[in-house]
Design brief:
The protein is of the alpha/beta class and 211 residues long. It has two domains: 127 residues, Response regulator (Rossmann fold); 58 residues, Winged helix-like DNA-binding domain superfamily/Winged helix DNA-binding domain (Arc Repressor Mutant, subunit A), CATH 1.10.10. Helix content is 55%, strand content 14%. The chain is built from eleven helices and six strands. A six-stranded parallel beta sheet has the order 2-1-3-4-5-6, sandwiched between helices. Helix 1 links the parallel strand 1 and strand 2. Helix 8 packs across helix 10 and helix 9 packs across helix 10. It starts with a strand and ends with a helix.
Length: 211
């Protein structure tokens, strides 16, 4: 059976050597190269020719995400699994955006590691179960932030008063603007949210995370 060639990139020598030993004990795998940071590993990409790179996120000199971006410039189809202790939302989203094929926590069981490597080798993407909700939460925040820009600050302000049930005249008096200006803001809100009336606009704003 042809073994899957792996590279291990981690700045913690004891962890790296322990991981290399563990992987070499598994029948499916062979560790062909290892390095202590992303910069040291980059020259190895082509001559070591690993099927999959297992790489830490937080490393000195060149961290895992910077290394992942650099690897993509050398070999666009290189499979990379981020193996890390970091559950930081930013690290996770950056890794996925940079093209990581998997993101696994270091406290994973050996069988979970084996499963992840085999799944990534098959062309699938794998994420630690503990991190799935973080990804969805991050996407929801990004969506809400993007949708927020649909409306101007003043339009959001008018929409907030619409939610409270204020009439056009009451909104105008509260904001010290004319009734016609409020009507214009409301018209723009309805157009931008593709709503037919105030109630529908409020409902859509809530669905989009604007309110």
């Amino acid at each position: 059976m042809t073994k899957i060639k792996l590279a291990v990139v981690d700045d913690h020598a004891l962890f790296r050597r322990g991981l290399v030993s563990l992987l070499n004990e598994m029948d499916e795998f062979l560790v062909c190269s290892e390095a202590g940071n992303g910069k040291d590993f980059l020259p190895m990409v082509e001559y070591a020719n690993p099927d999959i790179v297992l790489m830490d996120v937080n490393m000195p000199v060149m961290d895992g995400i910077q290394a992942l971006e650099a690897i993509r410039e050398i070999r666009r189809d290189q499979k990379v699994i981020m193996l890390t202790i970091s559950q930081n939302d930013e690290d996770l989203v950056r890794a996925i955006a940079a093209g990581a094929n998997g993101y696994l926590l270091k406290n994973a069981e050996p069988e979970a590691l084996r499963y992840t490597i085999l799944e990534v080798m098959r062309g699938n993407s794998v994420l630690s179960p503990e991190l799935t909700e973080k990804v969805f939460a991050s996407l929801r925040r990004a969506r809400a932030s993007q949708n927020q820009t649909l409306l101007s600050d003043r339009e959001v302000e008018v929409l907030t008063f619409m939610v409270k049930g204020l009439t056009t005249h009451q909104i105008a008096e509260t904001l010290f603007i004319s009734d016609n200006t409020v009507k214009t803001h409301i018209r723009h809100i309805l157009e931008k949210l593709d709503a037919n009336n105030r109630a529908q606009a409020v409902e859509k704003a809530r669905e989009l995370g604007i309110l």
